[in-house]
């Protein structure tokens, strides 16, 4: 998701390009994530925008937005991943790849998504 946004490429192009990369082929679950987010993008972005108090999607660091999209998709649309695991993984990746404030922001927003999940599905 991050690469597609940064390179301004369609997600299908990224999946095709990365899936055919002999040195670093895209794993099946990564393809599932990208396809899942792509098919529910409007809903996912609306959820994020609704609960990201004081932040617009355009104002968020690109890494944070990608992690929030993945986490939101896993919480709302993927029953195979435990909700808390989705949040923990997004926070862990934010610690590695984003700003010092990002883990708390992502944890808070995804926790809020989890709290309102029954009203969203």
UniProtKB/TrEMBL annotation:
Residues 14-114 form the NusB/RsmB/TIM44 domain. Coiled coil: none annotated. It comes from the Bacteria. Gene3D superfamilies: NusB-like (1.10.940.10). One of its GO terms (biological process) is DNA-templated transcription termination. Keywords: RNA-binding, Transcription, Transcription antitermination, Transcription regulation. GO terms for molecular function: RNA binding. Pfam families: NusB. One of its GO terms (cellular component) is cytosol. InterPro entries: NusB-like_sf, NusB_fam, NusB_RsmB_TIM44. Involved in transcription antitermination. Required for transcription of ribosomal RNA (rRNA) genes. Binds specifically to the boxA antiterminator sequence of the ribosomal RNA (rrn) operons. NCBIfam families: nusB (TIGR01951). Belongs to the NusB family. This is Transcription antitermination protein NusB. It comes from Brevibacterium aurantiacum. The gene is nusB.
């Amino acid at each position: 998701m991050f690469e597609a946004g940064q390179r301004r490429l369609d997600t299908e192009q990224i999946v095709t390009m990365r899936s055919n990369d002999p040195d670093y082929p895209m794993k099946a679950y990564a393809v599932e994530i990208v396809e899942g987010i792509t098919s529910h993008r409007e809903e996912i972005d609306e959820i994020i925008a609704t609960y990201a108090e004081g932040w617009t999607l355009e104002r968020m660091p690109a890494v944070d937005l990608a992690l929030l999209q993945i986490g939101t998709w896993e919480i709302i649309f993927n029953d195979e991943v435990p909700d808390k695991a989705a949040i923990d993984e997004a926070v862990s990746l934010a610690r590695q790849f984003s700003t010092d404030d990002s883990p708390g922001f992502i944890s808070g927003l995804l926790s809020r998504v989890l709290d309102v999940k029954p009203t969203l599905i």
